[in-house]
Amino acid sequence: MTDLPHLASRLYGTPLLIARPKLDVILGVMARKLAGQPLAMPTPESAQPRPPALQIVDGIAIVPVLGTLVRRSAYLDAASGLMSYHAIQAMAEDAFADPQVRAVLLEVDSSGGEAGGVFDLALRLRALSKASGKPLWAIADEAALSAAYAIASAAEQLWLTRTAEAGSIGVVAVHVDQSGADAQAGLSYTLLHAGEHKIDGHPHAPLPASVAADIQADLDRLYDQFVELVAAHRRLDAQAVRATQARIYRGEAALQAGLADRIGTLDDALAALQQRLARRASADRSAPRLSHSCKEMTMHDDAPDALAAEVSVDANAAAAQAAAPDTAALAAQIEQRLRAELAELTEIAAQAKRLGVTVDPAQALTQGIKPDALRRTVLEQAAARDAAADIVAVAPASASPPSVADSPLVKAAKAYGGNQ
Length: 420
Description:
Helix content: 40-55%
CATH architecture of the largest domain: Alpha-Beta Complex
Strand content: 5-15%
CATH class of the largest domain: Alpha Beta
Order of helices and strands: HEHEEEEHEEHEHEEHHHEHEHHHHHHHH
Radius of gyration: 41 Å
C-alpha cells in the first residue's frame, strides 16, 4: 500500500528543485489520491523490479540518475518513479573505488526532485572524481532539469541528446489551502501549539503573509546556493546563471547558454570518453618514470653532496616532463614572446628612422636578430655616417697637382744661384 502521508510530506510545504510540468503531473495525481479517488497501481507483473543498477561498459561505469529524485526512497523505488540521492551516491562511490573502472558517466533522465541533499551529492561526485583521478562525464537522455541538472553540472563534460532538456535552475514550494474543502466536508481544524512558528504553512487555513515571506526567504537562500553551485561547476558567471531565470533549454539552445558541452547519443558520449581514456593511457606510457633508487631517496640538509648525485637521469627527465607545459600553453608562450620582440624591434626601427637609418623590424624578427643586436647595429651605422661627415676639405678630383718648377720661390732660388 502506498504511504500517502509520507508522499504528501515530500511534496507540500518543502522546497523542491523540480521542473514545473513534472510538478503539475505529480500534484494532479496526489490531489486525486488524497481526495479518495482510486488510482491504477502497477501490478507485480507490470511493475519495474528495482531502481536501475550500476553498469560497467569497457571500463566505464554508467550511474543512472532517473525519475523523480528524493533524499531517501526507502521502499518507494522505481515502481513509484523515485530514486534517492543516497542510492546514486552509493553507486558512484562503488564505481570510483573499483580498480576496473577508469571513468564514470552519469546517465540522467530526470525533471528533478527534493532540494534536501542534492547539493551535497553534487559536491561529493566532484570530490570523488578529483580524488580518484577518474573523469566524470554526464549525458542528459532526455532531461537534466532542476535537481537533476545540479547533479549533472558536477561532470567535467555534459552531453545532451538532440532533443534533451537542461536547466530549470530554480526552487519552488507548494502550499495547499484546503480550508474550503474542510468547510464543505463539515470539518473545522484547531491546531494547538507551543512556539509561534510551530504550525507555519499548515493546510487548514490560508497562508499568512508573514509565513509566506519566511518561506520565500528560505527559497531565495536555496536559489543562491543553486546558482553558485552551477556557476562553479560550469565555470560560468553567477549573474549569467541567474539570468536564465529557471528557463528550460532544449538541445543546441542549452549549449549556447553554456549549460552543456556536446550534442550526441549515449553511445557517442561513451565513444568520446573511451578516446579520452586512450589518449591519457598513451601519454602515461610515454612519460618517463622515476628510478627505484630515486623514489626511496630522502634529501636532508646535512646529507653529503655525493647523495645528491644518486638522482637518476630518469628523475630529471620526469621532473622536466612534469614542469613542461602542454602544447597549447607552449604555443601561447612562444606567440607572446614573439609579439613582445616584434614590438621592441618596431620601436627601435622608429628611433633609427629619426637617426636616418632604415630598419625592417619584420625582417629582423624573421632572421632571428634580437633587439639588443639590432640596436647596436643602428648605432654603429649612425656613428659611421657621422665620422664621414667630419671630413671638411678634400682635393678636387679633376685638379692636377701643381709643378714644383713653376713655384716662384724655386725660380727666385735658381736666379740667385746663377748670379753667383
